[in-house]
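Hey all, quick one. A colleague (J.T.) asked me to put the copper (II) ion job into the tracker so the inputs and the structure tokens live in one place instead of scattered across chat threads. No bug as far as I know, just bookkeeping. Sequence used:
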Amino acid sequence: MRRNALDRRTVLKMTAAGVAGVTLAGCSSDGGSGGSEESGSDESGGDEESGGDTEESGGDSGGSEDFGGWLDGVENYDGVVDETGSDEVSVAVGAQGNGGGFAFDPAAVRVDSGTTVVWEWTGDGGQHNVAHTDGEFESETVSEKGHTFEHTFEESGTFEYSCVPHETMGMKGAIVVE
Ligand SMILES: [Cu+2]
């Protein structure tokens, strides 16, 4: 709730902190070369994040969901980031991963139904898009930093998507709607 009052940049940082939290709880693989900048915000964001963890009624231990193998080989996938309780959630497009700016961050996120997910282009990795595997949503293919695409998830379910130009490199993601 408090999170909604923060600007998008802060939300992104906190999301990164959430990923780090999952890392600590789960396997100990490090965040990769792209994680160094984000790690600076981990300490401040981490406290707040752990406060929110009490809302998780068990269930999602990081990395236990593999989406039928959809996220196999997605370098930056490190468990489903819980953003339930947020009206709007940001996902970076062209985050570091998969050998360059070829990742969605977070790769997988859990939201409540009615949540708007806003994908925001970092400007890295060239041209990207956001394409649901079954065509329920699809963005333009663009490279410009700051470009956004949004989709409001009204129905519960699991939504797998990719960046079509970089899907084979592992630029894939998933939204779990409760
Ligand atoms: Cu891409």
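Adding what we noticed when we looked at it: Residues 102, 125, 128, 163, 165-166, 171 surround copper (II) ion (CB under 6 Å). Residues 1-63 have pLDDT under 50 and may be disordered.
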